[in-house]
What does this fold into?
Amino acid sequence: MPQRFLLIFLLAALPAFPVAKEILQLQRDVAQLQDQVSRLEKSLGVQLGVMQQLLSQSLDASARLSNSLSALERTVQGQEKVLAAPVAGVNAKVDSLAERFQALREAVDEMNTKLRRLETQVVDIKNIVSTVPPPAAPAGGTTPSSTPPAPQVQAETLYRNAMRDYTAGNYNLAGPQFDQYIKLFGNTDLAADAQYYLGDILYQSREYEKAVDAFDQVLERYTEGKQTPNAQYKKGLALFKLGKRDKAAQEFRGVISKFPGTPAAAQAAEALRGMGLSARPSAAPAKKSRRK
It folds into this structure.
């Protein structure tokens, strides 16, 4: 019986050893886990403290920056208030100066126009005075103490002024001056030129009928003038502008036959080719040469 109980006891006690071993292992694992958790808590505590410190520093820096920006904004606003009035005053002065400069420029332009008109009137008065015959000499044969300027000098002045306005494109001033020159000094060498330029002014102004009449005056009164070939060529252009092709071609061929080798003849030939016509001269001069 004792042996039997011993065997039963041993059999009952056998499973207890592995269970105790597992418990001990489990206790050691729990202890290790608790230790790791404790270390992790300490590490998280340290890191959290650092983060809190950095966050606090960031908040302080943000507050200081916000205060600086507010102070800067107040300063800028104060400067704007201080500078607003002077800047507005400067702008007003600039606008006023611009308006004065524009008014001054307009006044100068108007004065120049008046001076030009006055100069023309002075020339007209001089020309009129030059046409007045000088007073008769005294019976004793003595000459007057003063004599009027020579008409040639006045003619050159009038022509020079007219050419200046013509070259500058002031046709409204040059036209009357050329016309006056022709009336007062129609027998001078420059009268033919003046008549030609008068016709060219009418042509440039698109008054083609009047231009034809003016060029005819050159061809009739100044047949030997240096501008006569150009006058006939320009007459052909004016006729062409009026739609008179046949008459224009006749004038162009007349330039080629009367003034061969001149620039006007070359231009007339080019104009005929542009019209699709022959540039050869008319047959009239050839018949006269055969008769000779």
User: Anything to note?
Assistant: The radius of gyration is 57 Å. Confidence is low (pLDDT under 50) at residues 135-150, 283-292. The longest helix spans residues 16-131. The domain at 151-283 is CATH 1.25.40.10 (Serine Threonine Protein Phosphatase 5, Tetratricopeptide repeat).
